[in-house]
């Protein structure tokens, strides 16, 4: 089968007087393929045959179960429909369940909006161990982070101590 570009090249070469054998050599295709393409009036679009999935009869059942209880796992649904006569693979079920869940998750996203100065979220946790050149051993470093709700601006502060004084100093430094 020739692409649209190859088909146009073949017609141009034919109009220039090239033989089918020469056109086939230039395009790297068989003579029969070139001959068939030159006989056609217009471009032929490839249409894939409609093939139904083995999972098709069970899709309604799977959707109903997931809507009924969102914690259904794909492996659990696979076991249930296998008992109903499903002969396909578990991978097909996993892919379909994932597709359904992605559609549901996208529709539930709502952005949280606040007015300026109204809200900020704070976290103060152990960040990681760091080895400094002044000390022979590694020291724990704590990270204070604050995200303002209005503009999503982030502040990070790093401290050697994980105590109330460092926590309060992180608040002061953020402003």
Topology of helices and strands:
Elements: H1 4-15, H2 20-27, H3 31-39, H4 59-68, H5 74-83, H6 90-107, E1 120-131, E2 138-148, E3 154-159, H7 164-174
Antiparallel strand pairs: 1-2, 2-3
Q: What are the salient characteristics of this protein?
A:
elongated; 17% strand; 175 residues; 7 helices; alpha+beta
Quick overview of this protein structure:
By secondary structure, this protein is an alpha+beta fold.
Structure notes:
By secondary structure, this protein is of the alpha+beta class. The protein has seven helices and three strands, in the order H-H-H-H-H-H-E-E-E-H. It has a three-stranded antiparallel β-sheet, with helices on one face. A hairpin with a 5-residue loop joins strand 2 and strand 3. It is elongated, with a radius of gyration of 33 Å.
Strand-pairing-aware structural class: alpha+beta
Uncertain runs are: none
Oligomer: single chain
Report how far apart the termini are. Answer: 68 Å
Strand line-up across the major sheet: 1-2-3
User: Major beta sheet, specifics?
Assistant: 3 strands, antiparallel
The number of helical runs is 7
**Gyration radius from CA atoms, angstroms:** 33 Å
SSE arrangement, N to C: HHHHHHEEEH
Q: State which percent range the strand residues make up.
A: 15-25%
> How many extended strands?
3
Shape: elongated
Average pLDDT taken over every residue: 85
Q: Helix proportion of residues, in percent?
A: 40-55%
């Amino acid at each position: 089968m020739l692409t649209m570009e190859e088909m146009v090249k073949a017609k141009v070469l034919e109009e220039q007087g090239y033989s089918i054998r020469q056109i086939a050599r230039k395009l790297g295709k068989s003579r029969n393929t070139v001959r068939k393409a030159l006989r056609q009036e217009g471009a032929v679009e490839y249409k894939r045959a409609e093939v139904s999935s083995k999972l098709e009869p069970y899709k309604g059942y799977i959707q109903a179960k997931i809507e009924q209880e969102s914690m259904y796992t794909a492996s659990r649904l696979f076991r249930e429909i296998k008992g109903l006569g499903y002969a396909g693979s578990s991978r097909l079920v996993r892919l379909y369940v994932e597709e359904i869940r992605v559609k549901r998750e996208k529709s539930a996203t709502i952005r949280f909006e606040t007015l300026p100065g109204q809200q900020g979220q704070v976290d103060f946790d152990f960040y990681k161990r760091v080895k400094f050149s002044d000390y022979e051993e590694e020291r724990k470093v704590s990270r204070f982070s604050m995200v303002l709700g209005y503009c999503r601006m982030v502040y990070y502060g790093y401290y050697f101590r994980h105590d109330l004084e460092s926590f309060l100093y992180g608040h002061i430094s953020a402003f």
